[in-house]
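Quick bug: COG0583: Transcriptional regulator output formatted oddly.
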Amino acid sequence: MTLAQLRYFLAIVRAGSMSAAAELVHVAQPALSQQIRQLEGELGQALFRRHARGIRLTDAGLRFQERAFGILRQVDALRDEFISTRAEPVGQVTLGMATAVNTAFLLPICLAVRQRHPGITLRLVESMSGFLMEWAEQGRVDLALAYEAASAPGLDAQRLGRESLFLIAAPDWRAPVKRRLGLADLARIPMVLPGFPHSLRILLDRSFAQRGLRLNVTAEVDSTLGMKQLVAAGVGCSILSRHSVAEEAGRGELAALPIARPGVSRSIDLLTGVQRRSDPAVQAVRAVVEEVVRAGLAPQEG
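Here's what came back:
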């Protein structure tokens, strides 16, 4: 098995056919087909199922795809680490971001990396905080911005700050009382929230339970966009960060109302996988992320 065979295999997966993959990697199609046959012969299993409209991965091919991608990513990272310098880092860095973090910080992080480090290609992945922690431990992402992240043996975790959460409501929603609402008031309001084990739901359940309260959840939606749409339609209210609804609030579609003290806040943590923490490119992106997020977490009313 060779690295070239792994690259050919992934090229076929991306292109969807042998002929398209041959053009992608600049190899004659018969030579490419021969390399794949040799690879399948060595593995003793078929990786592709061929049909009239192209090819499809077998179950073995699906497993092989994940491992091949991981191996090539490590090989490319090793090369980049040795040709990089701290003055001019190069290579690809994969940054995972929780959805709400993505909304607030994706653009300034991308622009800063592009301006300061033109030799770095930034690959962005969006997911739930729990998945991001796992991926950082496994080396699938080099860095991750996650909420309420716990330390783990395969991770370097750094707390960048905390953000206050707000009651999100439709603009014509009338609060049950005129004063600023506290958690006891929120417990009586129908809520649209993500389901367990979403990190936001875990945080809210814990915060309310500590005060002997229970959330009144009328709909569970594991999508920030979906929650905002249901709130705007009057199904219920939600609890999110202010920047999660900045665009909708600017258009008058949603309102972000501060919660009376002690309120609810959550930490934003920067996770670094141990596999590439010494890589100059990863360190450069980490410094940018740290700077941008800390600057964006100005004191908030909450």
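Actually, after a second look the formatting is fine. Residues 103 and 244 are 6 Å apart (CA to CA). Closing.
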